[in-house]
Design brief:
The chain is an all-alpha fold. The protein has helices at about 5-30, 40-70, 75-100, 105-140, 145-155.
């Protein structure tokens, strides 16, 4: 598996997640109230984000980032904050799903809108940093075995574990 294919797949995943977060923002609309007819779409988009976070981020955290830091120890100062951002993004999505699962009402809907905005902002910043700091360096430094391992990890079904794997976006929303 060549590095260009890995980078293409990772950018495609990033584009997909950006499209999902943009669709989520649009589904919520400009108003504070979540329209009843958009509830299934919001729930589905949150579930898609959870899946992307679980597979793509875990491949980066467990394979790509450690391999990059081994290959280029000087990259640690740039890569470790990206790992920390993954943890923060997972927590933000978990909180968003929990808030979305609360009883419907103006306060809940306002909180969902604020949390989506915050998640979208950090996600967009994170993806830009990742693409500029990691992708090119990884393509030049990592062995074919590591690249294959990252690709396999990104495309293999991973059993859910940890807080971000709890499907709170699909339960408790009675609307």
């Amino acid at each position: 598996m060549d590095a260009e294919r890995l980078i293409h797949q990772m950018k495609r995943d990033h584009d997909r997640v950006l499209a999902e977060i943009t669709a989520l923002e649009k589904a919520l609309g400009a108003g504070a109230a979540i329209a009843a007819d958009s509830i299934p779409e919001v729930r589905a988009l949150l579930d898609l984000l959870q899946e992307q976070f679980r597979t793509h981020m875990m491949a980066e955290d467990e394979v790509l980032y450690p391999a990059l830091m081994r290959a280029l120890p000087a990259s640690t100062g740039s890569v470790e904050p990206l790992h920390d951002e993954h943890a923060e993004l997972r927590l933000m999505l978990e909180r968003l799903c929990a808030t979305f699962a609360e009883s419907p009402g103006r306060a809940r809907d306002e909180q969902v809108a604020v949390q989506v905005h915050d998640l979208a902002d950090l996600l967009r910043i994170h993806l830009r940093k990742e693409e500029s700091l990691v992708f090119g360096v990884a393509a030049r430094l990592l062995s074919a075995d590591v690249i294959e391992s990252v690709m396999t990890r990104m495309t293999t079904a991973v059993p859910p574990h940890g807080p971000a794997s709890d499907p709170t976006c699909t339960k408790g929303t009675s609307q």
